[in-house]
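Predict the holo structure. Ligand: succinic acid.
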Amino acid sequence: MNEQYLLDLDLRRIPALAPDVIVIGSGITAISAALAAAENASVLLVTKSNLQESNTYYAQGGVAAALAPGDSPESHLRDTLVAGAGLCDETAVRKLVTEGPTRVRELIAWGTPFDREDKEHLSFTLEGGHGHRRILHANGDATGQAIESSLAKKIFEHPNISVLENHFAVDLLHKDRVCYGMLALDVKGGRFLKIEAKATVLATGGIGQVYRESTNPEVTTGDGMAVAFRAGATMQDMEFVQFHPTVLYLAGAKRFLVSEAVRGEGAHLLNSKGERFMKNYDERGELAPRDIVARSIYAEMLRTGATNVFLSVAHLDPNLVLERFPTIHKTLKQYGLDLTKDKIPVRPACHYMMGGVCTDLLAQTDVERLFAAGEVASCGIHGANRLASNSLLDGLVFGHEAGVQARGLAEHSQPTFPEKRVKPMRDKETIPLDVDDVRASLKSLVSRSAGIVRDAETMTNALQMLDFWQKYVYAEEFQTVKGLELQNMLACAQLVIRGALKREESRGAHQRSDFPQPNDANWKKHVTFNRRDFEG
Ligand code: SIN
């Protein structure tokens, strides 16, 4: 785990670019960072796929912001701290909830069509853990798509921003914990690029694909976390992985998210006998924070021997259901299910990573000139469990902050990367390896060992297996995205399980059957790792 680079590359032989600021990613965080940085800097936005392929695009629920009459940032702060189970940084949360409304108003000014009650008034919905209706949504349940479209338009119109799609971040250019830019692989052309910059912003999202069942798109393979870790950055709270309670569970169907907002509008969760069960686990019923709902569903599935539970809105006005959830309705219809009438089979799936690259309130990592924001980062706003719909707000607020800080560095001169060549630490060889097979095995292993409920024995065995796979998966110098992603997924899986093994308590989204209670005396603190912990 102490590898610093994945590939042996002579930097004098590959083409070079030199913008002031690089932003890696394509979702709301990356775009917010790019727009903020571009005020007085040239910005290169680099994404391994295209601007559409991000968690943002698929977000249904919405953006939480204290904008509704009677609501306040103070109330949003309280709800966020409760969900975070004692591990939020209150100053960071305060920044999120107080700056959030300004950033959302900016989105509205840029043309994001949030749904309205009437011309004057925005429409707000409720989600688990919120004490107020404060979730903004657009086109019913197509919120992410609406935001991403208005932001992408701003990006393509901006004279200081260039977009490099289909370029994979192989590694950061780094030495002695200073970042000088990145190495990119042109996914279509197969060429490498050296991109030097005065500041680099990571906004690459999470690790969803490390799990077999995930709400995240295919691109979420933990690349940003892995490149930062190899560059020497400190990683924090990697054991805190959030499971979304209600993901469509039908043989052969995509693990499609059925938004928490459906429960916010009054949906019931039913067990295999058709009985409501949530109140047996928590008095808040279907609107308990999502870690509690996910664990309750898991417990109910075990109790009844079922593979899933059901979500039902049959008791609600079908017109309201169709107006609020057109995307969900359309998707379910493809599989012969009618959201307004049928019981929808659902179960929990991996959804969001609370941990990540450790940053301060200015999105600065402990690698100089490297910033991180959004899901790839851990700045203390989510603690042990993220409050629903706080992630788009996180991207807006801390993406913007990262961009502002990056443009500050752009006023200074460009530092030159001192190396002519980068190299893995040990000699590499080409070995016969079925990358897809290892990827599938890794996803199953992580799901079995670091899922909703964990224990030391299962995780120790899983870690031994991952460490063994590492020996030969890291022996190869892949020049394909699939191979490079596998190496990143392996690094993230090891960090998740190491963190989960270390934290001998249950808190927020991290539940240990062998340590079922929170232990404030020993564990009301963060778990951190960096590459240097594995040296020697
Ligand atoms: C959802 O729509 O349920 C997801 C919202 C979120 O993860 O914040």
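The chain has a mean pLDDT of 95. Residues 18-240+354-409 form a domain with the FAD/NAD(P)-binding domain fold (CATH 3.50.50.60).
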